[in-house]
């Protein structure tokens, strides 16, 4: 029966994390794909003759390796790319190499499409390259990227919380505005899409990719998988499990250095002195993946040459909307973050904004004193999309800064001894800002930014901070 179910899931384009496959015998023999979700008018996202959805991802060492994914018509069975050093003249590229890769079919309401992966290895550090990929009817434009330095160098990152719902008409404005800022790499904290009944899943991914356009092909994208990157499957006992949507591993060719059994959703990348560790909290929360990720997390924190370290995942350790914190993450991961000097923990899921440091201490002089030598990371939660949740009754006194009913994006500027974190709203307001200054003993001092910030944004009863209805629902 297990073989039959694996085959059935493969036909549907679905896969289970290895850690969940022991539960396959409980699954119904014929899970049904969602085919009746609303479609984009005119079916504008069908695969065609040109390669599209081109997405760049960093290698484990972003000074030496990158990877690209792209979508083509299913009939394009060859996976081809070319890469060379950029030139100033119209020849575009020098020392061009022809590369091949691997592909897979992903079937959805829009029909079958082929997704391709090509890995760019043996690159030179701090070097400008251009590449192009082959579609059914020709080549893409030459697209530029720059490898990271192999030594420490200043870096700017963009961090985006959940886009998830109404990506095309609401979340796009925030993503597009963020991407106008100079940056080196983009970090996504999960729930990039909803993967539910609101819209055909492929149309939803098309809207997400349209929001970033060719930027996604020219700056490396680092995605954490959220619970909405997993599709629900009913079990015989009436409960549910989740399988990773086929679009996620097809779209993101992440480094193959993650936790055992979770190659598509856990990985680490080093970018010119910054280590980014991406974890899969859905597998940890629901699919038995906590222990293997905890072991792996300790390994990549222990053997860590980076000066700054960021953890990226979806479910927040400290929640700003849900009544309870995620205690098992706090029990297993927080001690490792504190013991190994993780600087930032970037999260999503709660659809509100919050920043936490020394959150166990009361706000005021006691917390401010502890911020002079932080015992652990600064935890962030943000949302870029439409759906909002109401703040819980702890956010106002546990967090350093909080907000509701507010779409934001974040800029993170990292230099040798200083990290500056900024939260911006769509109107151009600076909503939050702070710096981490590296002390001589290796710990961080948190310094509040002196610039004027936008007023606190919360709902007052049914009235939202913009004067209209409050969109946040209780969790």
UniProtKB/TrEMBL annotation:
<dbReference type="InterPro" id="IPR004843">
    <property type="entry name" value="Calcineurin-like_PHP"/>
</dbReference>
<dbReference type="InterPro" id="IPR029052">
    <property type="entry name" value="Metallo-depent_PP-like"/>
</dbReference>
<dbReference type="Pfam" id="PF16656">
    <property type="entry name" value="Pur_ac_phosph_N"/>
</dbReference>
<keyword id="KW-0732">Signal</keyword>
<feature type="domain" description="Purple acid phosphatase N-terminal">
    <location>
        <begin position="52"/>
        <end position="147"/>
    </location>
</feature>
<feature type="compositionally biased region" description="Gly residues">
    <location>
        <begin position="464"/>
        <end position="475"/>
    </location>
</feature>
<feature type="signal peptide">
    <location>
        <begin position="1"/>
        <end position="20"/>
    </location>
</feature>
<feature type="region of interest" description="Disordered">
    <location>
        <begin position="449"/>
        <end position="475"/>
    </location>
</feature>
<dbReference type="Pfam" id="PF00149">
    <property type="entry name" value="Metallophos"/>
</dbReference>
<dbReference type="InterPro" id="IPR039331">
    <property type="entry name" value="PAPs-like"/>
</dbReference>
<dbReference type="GO" id="GO:0046872">
    <property type="term" value="F:metal ion binding"/>
</dbReference>
<protein>
    <submittedName>
        <fullName>Metallophosphoesterase family protein</fullName>
    </submittedName>
</protein>
<dbReference type="GO" id="GO:0003993">
    <property type="term" value="F:acid phosphatase activity"/>
</dbReference>
<dbReference type="InterPro" id="IPR008963">
    <property type="entry name" value="Purple_acid_Pase-like_N"/>
</dbReference>
<feature type="domain" description="Calcineurin-like phosphoesterase">
    <location>
        <begin position="176"/>
        <end position="353"/>
    </location>
</feature>
<dbReference type="InterPro" id="IPR003961">
    <property type="entry name" value="FN3_dom"/>
</dbReference>
<dbReference type="InterPro" id="IPR015914">
    <property type="entry name" value="PAPs_N"/>
</dbReference>
């Amino acid at each position: 029966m297990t073989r039959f179910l694996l085959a059935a899931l493969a036909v549907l384009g679905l896969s289970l994390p290895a850690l969940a496959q022991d539960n396959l015998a409980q699954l119904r023999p014929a899970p049904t794909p969602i085919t009746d979700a609303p479609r984009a008018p005119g079916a504008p996202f069908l695969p065609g003759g040109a390669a599209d959805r081109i997405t760049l991802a960093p290698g484990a060492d972003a000074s030496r390796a990158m990877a690209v994914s792209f979508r083509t018509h299913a009939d394009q069975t060859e996976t081809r790319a070319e890469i060379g050093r950029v030139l100033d003249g119209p020849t575009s590229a020098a020392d061009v190499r022809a590369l091949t890769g691997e592909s897979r079919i992903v079937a959805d309401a829009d029909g079958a499409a082929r997704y391709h992966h090509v890995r760019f290895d043996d690159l030179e550090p701090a070097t400008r390259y251009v590449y192009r990929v082959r579609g059914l009817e020709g080549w893409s434009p030459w697209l530029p990227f720059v490898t990271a330095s192999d030594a420490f160098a200043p870096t700017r990152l963009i961090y985006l919380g959940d886009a998830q719902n109404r990506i095309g008409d609401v979340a796009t404005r925030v993503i597009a505005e963020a991407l106008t800022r100079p940056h080196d790499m983009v970090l996504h904290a999960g729930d990039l899409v909803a993967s539910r009944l609101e819209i055909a899943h492929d149309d939803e991914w098309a809207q997400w990719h349209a929001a970033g356009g060719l930027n996604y092909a020219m700056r490396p994208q680092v995605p954490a998988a959220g619970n909405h990157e997993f599709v629900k499957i009913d079990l015989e006992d009436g409960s549910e499990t989740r399988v990773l949507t086929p679009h996620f591993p097809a779209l993101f060719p992440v480094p193959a250095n993650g936790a055992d059994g979770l190659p598509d959703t856990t990985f680490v990348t080093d970018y010119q002195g910054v280590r980014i560790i991406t974890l899969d909290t859905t597998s940890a929360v629901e699919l038995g993946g906590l222990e293997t990720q905890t072991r792996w997390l300790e390994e990549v924190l222990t053997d860590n040459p980076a000066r700054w370290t960021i953890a990226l995942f979806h479910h927040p350790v400290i929640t700003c909307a849900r009544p309870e914190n995620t205690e098992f993450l706090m029990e297993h991961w927080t001690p490792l973050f504190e013991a190994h000097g993780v600087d930032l923990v970037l999260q999503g899921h709660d659809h509100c904004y919050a920043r936490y440091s020394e959150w166990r201490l009361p706000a005021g002089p006691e917390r401010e004193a502890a911020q002079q030598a932080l015992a652990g990371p600064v935890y962030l939660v943000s949302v870029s999309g439409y759906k909002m949740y109401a703040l819980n009754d702890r956010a106002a006194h546990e967090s350093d800064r909080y907000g509701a009913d507010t779409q934001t994006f974040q800029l993170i500027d990292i230099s040798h001894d200083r990290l500056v974190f900024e939260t911006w709203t769509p109107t151009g307001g600076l909503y939050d800002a702070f710096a981490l200054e590296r002390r001589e003993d290796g710990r961080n001092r948190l310094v509040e930014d002196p610039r004027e910030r936008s007023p606190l944004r919360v709902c007052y009863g049914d009235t939202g901070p913009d004067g209209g209805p409050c969109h946040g629902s209780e969790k």
